[in-house]
């Protein structure tokens, strides 16, 4: 009698795992994983059931990315992006605003858009060529769009400045005030694109109005420039042993600072940096001190020397390297990413300053000018040569900076708030991230690795020295991820208690993973990943609270859908009670939007009616089946999918030589324990050897169908939800025998155990 082994699996919590685990019998992912788990979702119990359907909300046309948002208490809208356009859509699926002539064209372009809300405005970034756009609601009914424009106070533009041009180049303005002043650069700097942009000379702004060549420009002095002083040393002392050209010097009593532009045997030429005003008492009374003063000491890096005479302030006389440039403009490019945290609007992903991050002043999103007080704007650059792609507010008030080659976190505490001068970058990972928008879910932030072929997470460890850590969340599921484009993570329970991550993958469609929050802190998080596929193509997935929305395409038409656990079809539409967004044109049928296609019909919740054809006008073509009522109020039309659960065949244990693992094996019995069953197939799948013109691996070879209705059941009513154990003896033998449960008809099915009896 042939020896047999029996394997029973009740825990499917690892989902569909890498096939390379099939011989690793003792691995936890092998024990609680499946070779295939398509269109099923793992439950908290460890069992699995047919996945949820999707309710059709409205036709989206060419709109291929839709996300829901709250702009103020009780006011929820959706924002949609189509090639060249953006739309605002109400809760009742009515387009209330549309904006055209926008620069995105392809789906890849649309995927890269970043947007955030602050107050009653939506800030939209796309690429480096588009100035950020601001879509604003008046709080009643009117939406408008405008370029993001930094605040101007007087003549000062409240925008970030940074030295982008090479170091060592000096600038020399021809005047301290007025328009038409010349500006000379000691080496090539200027381009035609500089016209209309600003530079700062010694922290004072100049507007470039003309460019003659790469070293000569004309400017309007927007803020009066500090001037130049000649300082004569007391008693003709030689300053050269103490003071050198390029030194920063400070007045011992006035507090004024300057850059040394020249030194001789008895004089020091100084370009003022600041004219620190103080009140001092002199023989003639109190006076305001606005520059270096006769009688005070000039203090430099190597020492100090007394001033015998300080001449009046004049125009700058020599180029100095203390200058910087406007970061955000048509020449330098615009930020491609934005974020909001602690009432500050932030920008990052700059073209010519890849590591830069700008935070606005608190509750002043157009004020990006860096100042010294805590409420003012901030501008910092990450320490490594990396492209900042996204900044995400995280757990425990920290912010996380996702770069192409690094990941940092910025500690934010009560003692070290987010304020100018307080930002520090702590390296979290030397592996970067893909340009896929990270998503926060409870105490974890999800992101795609730099290759976009793995899902990662940042979790709080609770440790003092390393409060956060990165974890790979798809370690045993690499075959499911290749080209991640979007991540969604609901932040509230909705129709079921389980929590899931939803990942859109360019090559494998939608991949869904079930997780438990506490388990994410472990060294080996257990996540039940599996693909969800069907007739439609999902272009975007997004979450809002407990809702999950899909922007999908069916037969070339865009449809906005919402996950609905009460439905068993995608693009589900109540045929005779369709929402207003699907109102039919005159003379057309209820499915006018997909003429000459086919649908699956369900009635009374779980009664499947089969596949029906649609005529050219959108009417369902009757088939005359028993119980068919195409006018029923409960009739639902949609698109089906196939659920598959394939366990690994139990491996023969070690022991006395019986050629185990080295000969053809046969599955003598396959059993499935199910609840809420409306029928399924027990199948044997082809597992080789491959031959020319032969079947492909995984082809269904023979099967036993467990029907939805038994002989005495009324097929005009929903099938009974059965709780039973079904067994079957498949035919055939193989070195790698394969069997599976296949749910190829719409309706509920929960699998609690799969048992396989196989020869060794």
Task: Tell me what the structure shows.
With 760 residues, the chain is an all-beta fold. The protein has two helices and 63 strands. Among the domains are: 4-51 and 644-759, Jelly Rolls; 161-326, no CATH class; 580-640, no CATH class. The strands form 15 sheets. Strands 1, 5, 6, 57, 60, 61 and 63 form a seven-stranded antiparallel sheet that branches. A seven-stranded antiparallel sheet has the order 18-32-21-22-23-20-19, with no helix packed on it. Strands 24-27-26-25-30-31 form a six-stranded antiparallel barrel. Strand 41 and strand 42 (444-448) form a beta hairpin. The longest helix has 5 residues, at 107-111. The protein starts with a strand and ends with a strand. The relative contact order is 0.13. The model has no long low-confidence stretch (mean pLDDT 92).
**Contiguous helical run count:** 2
Helix content: under 10%
Please tell me the overall pLDDT. Answer: 92
Gyration radius (Cα, Å) is 35 Å
Largest sheet: 7 strands, antiparallel
Number of strands: 63
Distance between the termini: 12 Å
**Silhouette:** elongated
Give the uncertain stretches in residue-range form: none
Structural category = mainly beta
The fraction of residues assigned to DSSP E strands is: over 45%
Descriptors:
760 residues; mainly beta; Jelly Rolls; seven-stranded antiparallel beta sheet; 63 strands; elongated
């Amino acid at each position: 009698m042939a020896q047999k082994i029996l394997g029973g699996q009740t825990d499917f919590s690892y989902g569909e795992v890498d096939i390379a685990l099939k011989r690793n019998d003792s691995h936890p992912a092998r024990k609680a994983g499946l070779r295939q788990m398509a269109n099923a979702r793992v439950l908290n119990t460890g069992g699995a059931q047919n996945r949820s359907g999707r309710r059709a909300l409205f036709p989206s046309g060419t709109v291929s990315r839709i996300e829901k948002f709250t702009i103020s208490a009780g006011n929820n809208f959706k924002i949609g992006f189509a090639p060249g356009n953006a739309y605002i859509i109400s809760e009742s699926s009515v387009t209330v605003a549309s904006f055209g002539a926008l620069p995105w064209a392809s789906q890849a372009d649309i995927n890269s858009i970043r947007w955030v809300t602050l107050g009653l405005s939506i800030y939209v970034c796309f690429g480096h060529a588009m100035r950020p756009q601001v879509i604003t609601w008046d709080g009643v009914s009117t939406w408008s769009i405008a370029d993001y424009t930094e605040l101007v106070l007087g003549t000062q533009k409240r925008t970030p400045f940074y030295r982008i041009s090479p170091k060592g180049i000096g600038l020399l303005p021809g005047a301290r005030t007025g328009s038409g002043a010349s500006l000379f650069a000691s080496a090539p700097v200027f381009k035609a694109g500089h016209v209309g942009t600003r530079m700062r000379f010694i922290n004072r702004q100049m507007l470039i109005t003309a460019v003659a060549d790469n070293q000569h420009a004309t400017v309007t002095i927007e803020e009066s420039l500090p001037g130049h002083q000649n300082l004569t040393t007391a008693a003709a002392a030689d300053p050269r042993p103490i003071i050198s050209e390029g030194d920063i010097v400070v007045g011992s009593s006035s507090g004024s600072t300057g850059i040394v532009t020249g030194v001789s045997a008895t004089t020091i030429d100084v370009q003022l940096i600041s004219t620190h005003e103080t009140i001092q008492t002199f023989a003639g009374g109190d006076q305001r001190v606005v520059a270096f003063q006769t009688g005070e000491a000039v203090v430099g890096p190597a020492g100090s020397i007394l001033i015998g005479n300080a001449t009046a302030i004049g125009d700058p006389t020599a180029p100095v390297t203390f200058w910087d440039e406007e970061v955000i403009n048509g020449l330098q490019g615009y930020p491609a990413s934005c974020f909001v945290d602690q009432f500050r609007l932030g920008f990052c992903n700059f073209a010519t300053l890849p590591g830069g991050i700008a935070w606005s002043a608190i509750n002043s999103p157009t004020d990006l000018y860096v100042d010294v007080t805590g409420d003012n704007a901030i501008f910092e650059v990450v320490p490594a040569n990396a492209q900042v792609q996204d900044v995400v507010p995280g757990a425990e008030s920290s912010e996380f900076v996702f770069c192409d080659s690094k990941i940092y976190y910025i500690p934010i505490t009560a003692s070290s708030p987010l304020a100018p001068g307080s930002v520090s970058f702590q390296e979290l990972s030397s592996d970067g991230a893909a340009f896929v928008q990270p998503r926060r879910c409870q105490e974890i932030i999800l992101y795609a690795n730099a290759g976009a072929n793995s899902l990662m997470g940042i979790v709080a460890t609770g440790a003092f020295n390393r409060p956060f850590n990165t974890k790979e969340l798809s370690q045993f599921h690499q075959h499911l991820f290749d080209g991640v484009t979007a991540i969604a993570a609901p932040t509230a329970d909705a129709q079921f208690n389980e929590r899931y991550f939803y990942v859109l993958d360019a090559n494998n469609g939608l991949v869904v993973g079930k997780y438990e929050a506490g388990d994410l802190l472990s060294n080996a998080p257990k996540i039940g990943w599996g693909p969800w596929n069907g007739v439609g193509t999902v272009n975007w997935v997004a979450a809002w609270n407990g809702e999950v929305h899909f922007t999908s395409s069916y037969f070339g038409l865009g449809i906005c859908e919402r996950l609905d656990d009460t439905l068993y079809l995608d693009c589900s539409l109540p045929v005779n009670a369709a929402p207003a967004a699907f109102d039919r044109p005159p003379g057309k049928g209820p499915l006018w939007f997909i003429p000459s296609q086919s649908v699956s019909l369900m009635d009374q919740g779980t009664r499947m009616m089969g596949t029906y054809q649609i005529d050219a006008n959108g009417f369902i073509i009757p088939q005359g089946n028993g119980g068919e009522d195409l006018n029923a109020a409960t009739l639902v039309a949609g698109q089906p999918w196939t659920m598959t659960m394939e366990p690994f065949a139990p491996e023969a244990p070690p022991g006395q030589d019986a050629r185990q693992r080295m000969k053809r094996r046969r599955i003598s019995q396959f059993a499935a324990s199910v609840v809420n069953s409306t029928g399924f197939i027990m199948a044997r799948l082809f597992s080789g050897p491959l031959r020319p013109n032969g079947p492909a691996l995984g082809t269904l070879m023979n099967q036993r169908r467990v029907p939805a209705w038994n002989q005495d059941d009324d097929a005009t009513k929903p099938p009974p939800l059965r709780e039973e154990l079904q067994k079957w003896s498949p035919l055939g033998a193989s070195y790698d025998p394969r069997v599976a449960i296949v749910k190829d008809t719409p309706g509920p099915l929960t699998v609690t155990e799969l048992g396989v009896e196989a020869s060794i």
